[in-house]
Amino acid sequence: MTENNRYCVIMCGGTGSRLWPKSRTRMPKQFIDFLGTGQSLLQLTVARLKGIIPQENIFMLTQSEYAPLIKEQVPEISDKQILMEPAHRRTAPGNAWAAYHIKALNPDAKIMVAPADNIILRVEEFRQSVVKAFEFIEQHDTLLTFGVKPTRPETRYGYIQQGKEIDGEFAHVKTFTEKPDLELAKVFVDSGEFYWNTGIFFWSADAIIKALSEDAASKVSSRFAEGEGIYGTDKEMDFIKEIYAASQSVSVDYAVLEKADNVSVLRVDGIGWTDLGTWGSLYDVSPKTREGNVTQGAKTMMLNSRNNIVSATRDKLVIASGLNDYIIADSDNALLIVPRSEEQKIRNYVREVKTNHGKEYL
Amino acid sequence: MTENNRYCVIMCGGTGSRLWPKSRTRMPKQFIDFLGTGQSLLQLTVARLKGIIPQENIFMLTQSEYAPLIKEQVPEISDKQILMEPAHRRTAPGNAWAAYHIKALNPDAKIMVAPADNIILRVEEFRQSVVKAFEFIEQHDTLLTFGVKPTRPETRYGYIQQGKEIDGEFAHVKTFTEKPDLELAKVFVDSGEFYWNTGIFFWSADAIIKALSEDAASKVSSRFAEGEGIYGTDKEMDFIKEIYAASQSVSVDYAVLEKADNVSVLRVDGIGWTDLGTWGSLYDVSPKTREGNVTQGAKTMMLNSRNNIVSATRDKLVIASGLNDYIIADSDNALLIVPRSEEQKIRNYVREVKTNHGKEYL
């Protein structure tokens, strides 16, 4: 059965600091029910894969402090399916470890990499695309990514330039560009050749390991390769702790996808994808009043105020007057009132909070 | 001893809705430690009178729901010193009742009327002025008010026009004007003839009863006069309940001071007086950062923001960016973010809150 070769690594170690103060270090965005569905983003991510990927083949890549939250929210996951990174090192080391770990369990493993903070509005279309993607990588030696046709020159996302078409939905990838500025994003959108990079990847364990080994510069793979024979044994965690401490912090996009020549894209315009990275992305996907205001969990009285997003604990009453294009986010011990245009700076504000006011506000 | 004829009626029945959501129906401004001194505005008001007015001659004019708060904050006050108005009827009925009640206890009573929400920065000067005021009304048949020379064309206060001088500090009053618009306030300030009306009054029980009886239009006094012989007896509260229900809601300024011809003013520029009626008045008296921001009970990170007042429960962290001249007031279940120029409208917003969201937010 090919299904038994299908694996998923859910990336759920982030702290979501751009969604502070709703997303907290102790309770990051992926564990929060941001959409009011009754399920956290992580729970929705797991639920979307049901029946496509065997439950025992779903791995969580995270930090040790989030293991209890994962077990609570996804009780069907066993301890050995939780890969606890000993340090924050972005996505390349994590994907290297996951690939080596899973390959030790199943040399024929095909791996889907799924961020835990995606919003997928059309789940059935998404599931069909996942199956299609697995079938594609089972037949091609490729690193595949889900791409979405841009509807606006969004500067929050990375862009994929399409190369030669493979068939109607699949194509070779020519270039990757991390978050461009607005001018460049407009050029990308107008060209018709570019797609948003969703961060949802598919590859065989072999293919990603090979691609990592070809990236000599960031030296991620060579250290992980030294552990062959140790993965899947009692010594794995000690080995991982040792190499993580010295590992570079680099993204899989940079270490692999921008350099490899066998990257392809599956266009998934119909799945209703959003990366819930910032208050603005939450604003974009939320229902709005006639004045363009979005409310999350609060009661509001918005006077002469347009295009704001208000988030507060349930039943809190927020009265705002004369505010346009603002983020108003209230939590138990912190309140943020900043223009939506500063959403990317929130991460820096939080860093400053840590320095000046202590960890209890993170 | 003339001191035994000296009484004070502290007006502490207001709800302070313009200082919402810090001032709440269940805990109005006068019971709150707004200045961080460790004492509420009411406690400060009582403390300022110590040694000038016998403790047993201090009366609280309030609503029944606030009696427990008064007893808790001013335990030296006995139950019979708390006059509980059976309904909200502004200041004329309250002062009529207090005058008749106190006159029944002491026909020679001289009464000071003191709002519980005043801030007095220089207490010793204030105490000297109080003594001077009592001595003046002990010798003159007059209704005396404390006036403060305006330092700016403030539209939050009423204005007193001075008539003939009696001596350097006392003068006859020619006119009273309730809150003027900015143009008129500027004319008043420029003329040099006008003073802010502090709402601190001094009169004998006889003088205020006589003045009220001459105001036929608002008919406040005639009904209270019918109760002579009942004040100070077991039947007083039943009588008060009956006449309050039918009484007009009218201010003592309107019913008496604007009409009487024996009103005088004692100029008290040196006492450092402020009426803590609005967020703006709190802003005015509070220490400011170089950028003009005021913080009450919160930690703040103010980015590119000037001339704001931020109030929150202790240890709450507030981050604001790009806000100028705003009130940011946070409480357990309500958050207000409005321009300082709208401070007078807050009362209306609170009324709307009551209608749309229920009493728990008041």
Can you walk through the features of this model?
- By secondary structure, chain A is an alpha/beta fold.
- Chain A is 30% helix and 27% strand.
- Chain A has 11 helices and 15 strands.
- Chain A has helices spanning 41-48, 67-73, 91-105, 123-139, 182-191, 205-213, 220-225, 236-246, 252-257, 279-285, 346-357; strands at 6-11, 58-63, 82-85, 110-115, 118-120, 143-148, 159-165, 170-177, 194-204, 263-267, 273-275, 294-303, 309-321, 326-330, 334-339.
- In chain A, strands 6-9-7-8-10 form a 5-stranded mixed β-barrel. Chain A has a 4-stranded mixed β-sheet with strand order 12-13-14-15.
- The longest helix of chain A is centred in the middle third of the chain and has 17 residues, at 123-139.
- Chain A is globular, with a radius of gyration of 21 Å.
- The first copy, chain A, starts with 5 loop residues before the first strand and ends in a 5-residue tail after the last helix.
- The mean pLDDT of chain A is 93.
- The A-B interface holds A 299, 301, 303, 312, 315-323, 328, 330, 333-339, 342, 349, 352-353, 356-357, 361 and B 299, 301, 303, 312, 315-323, 328, 330, 333-339, 342, 349, 352-353, 356-357, 361.
